[in-house]
């Protein structure tokens, strides 16, 4: 063909007499070429091509007897594609440790390390400078005194540029390039002590600017066949308004005026979680000024809704950028980036305002992080960093950030340390720049996520912020995430949920026979015999975004499909969630007895306000009991052994104490003082069961709550020793107590006068 190519080789393999071996697919002919000279990069080989598509490899000396490069370093050269007048590249560069063909001279690494360079800079106030694995400075960091530091992790790139509104979007490949405006990043030694971190300060850049990275070499070919790609920043805090371009945006978190300087994250024993969708929580309320937005939730926070309800923590479903419009069935779990806040919900400062307002009302804020998979629709990380050039045309390979598939999308490679660094950085960024209190991690079972990563994440985030709250969805629950128990990762308790759904619908649930006495007591004692090591490890719930509401589930048993029955069961389910040892969680709308299938985020807000709903009025009083009384917040690894917890009713006991029936009762004595003592009673049978109660202290026991009413003592209510429902005991026992069908009770010791 008469085409000639110059091939440059860095010879970091150390060959004393470097040679180039060339072969052509489907042909027996080969070339064995000696270097014709050297340049500043290394040996240079001149190749007269027999075909425009060929493969090659470097070795030591002529023939086949000398040392060769290692396996996986076969390189392939092919002509450019796209334009009709496209030409074969006539000059390429190769590194001895990589199989990539570089279309331009790869940048040489700086003698300085990334960490040392970054220590000479001063970030703007309130910003997180990424430091997991090493001080890396990745993303876009506004600096004190002006300018923005840009950083990209790319271990295989030849050259990296940042381009954006600050330089007229000038970069290699521009239709009318102006090289004097190019902003080329420098290569520094970063993770693992090797060159892989690209950094540059751009004095002209400022908050509000949009930008992208341009990478030459070490990437898939573009539509013109060039080994050049434009990338959205993996550390982008926000994306621009154009959903087609998806430009990254420079954000200055220090511009927000926080007022939560005295806020302290509550102990996990104080948590009452309220899971919600940012969109779904307010989009159905005509009284909200900004429905479906961060600002809509803030309106409800400022109005005192959550304080009236009694919850202490808002558990927000995913906030990371989601590739698609919001809707009643959009859960947001197919995220595309880990640091970028979803544009549909509002700005970064809108989220800060939400958190600041929540803290001002005594509410913790927990974010849902999806680290097991990403979207297949818009996915900036997919094939962004190829680990080998063969991955370009392999549909099963997603590059560095991915390893295989999940049922929901591309599986994130959480077993890789550099991928872990990004995910941990994303959490630290949220802690620093948004003041959040913790995280819930989606689908952490070992089928989907490496547990070495989860444990590293727990260790490093706890060191970074000792009060951080960590919760995992791990179905079925695995014990290794408990760590030491008290400092372990809380888990959504699948045993509690599944058992409760079967008990409430009085039949088989999810193809399993949970409607029996087996493990009945265990789920209320923080599932200790099943997976947990401490009350901190269990989050109890009867509904979530993944699970149908109690009313919806109960109606699937046609015998129970009556309005009064469904409400009764909903009350029993919420009651059990609040009294079980561990952390209680309710899903938005559960306080109104919303009848809803799983994976639905929309619900109808009461037209006349929450107070018009009878279940809400009861639920708010019940939840506030959990919030007020130490007996309902008992924490520890073995409360039964310390005398704080003791069973008084159960299927395993004699007939007078519930034997053979789906009933439970336990006594709570959290302190030496009788005033703190309580008794909880439950009946899951569809008939009355008569039992004897071992209250444990003589005197008057007030009924604070049952399935119909909840009435606290002053100042929260007007309950007193004169209430007709109070139990009077002269010896600490009460015989012949009737537990009606599907009933529940909380009694509190109030006076030693029987």
Task: Give an overview in words.
By secondary structure, this protein is of the alpha+beta class. The chain has 12 helices and 38 strands. Strand 24 (402-405) and strand 25 (410-412) form a beta hairpin. The radius of gyration is 31 Å and the shape is elongated. 51% of the residues are buried. Residues 275-626 form the Glycosyl hydrolase family 13 catalytic domain.
Spell out the key features of this protein:
754 residues, alpha+beta, six-stranded antiparallel β-sheet, 12 helices, 38 strands, EC 3.2.1.41
Task: Tell me briefly what this model is.
Keywords: Glycosidase, Hydrolase, Signal. The protein has 12 helices and 38 strands. It is α+β, with helices and mostly antiparallel strands and about 750 residues long.
Q: How does the SSE layout of this entry go?
A:
Elements (H helix, E strand, L loop, with lengths): L3 E6 L8 E6 L6 E5 L2 E2 L4 E6 L5 E7 L14 E3 L13 E4 L14 E5 H5 L20 E4 L5 E6 L5 E6 L18 E2 L1 E4 L5 E8 L7 E7 L11 E4 L6 E2 L8 E2 L23 E4 L1 H5 L11 H9 L2 H5 L3 E4 L31 H13 L3 E6 L3 E2 L27 E4 L4 E3 L4 H18 L3 E4 L9 H14 L4 E4 L17 E3 L1 H12 L14 H5 L13 E3 L9 H6 L7 H17 L3 E5 L26 H15 L16 E5 L13 E6 L9 E6 L5 E6 L4 E8 L20 E3 L3 E7 L3 E9 L3
Parallel strand pairs: 1-8, 9-14, 20-21, 20-30, 21-22, 22-26, 26-27, 27-28, 28-29, 29-30
Antiparallel strand pairs: 1-5, 2-3, 2-6, 4-5, 6-7, 10-11, 11-15, 12-13, 12-16, 14-15, 16-17, 16-19, 18-19, 23-25, 24-25, 31-32, 32-33, 33-38, 34-37, 35-36, 35-38
Protein name: pullulanase
Enzyme class: hydrolase
EC number: 3.2.1.41
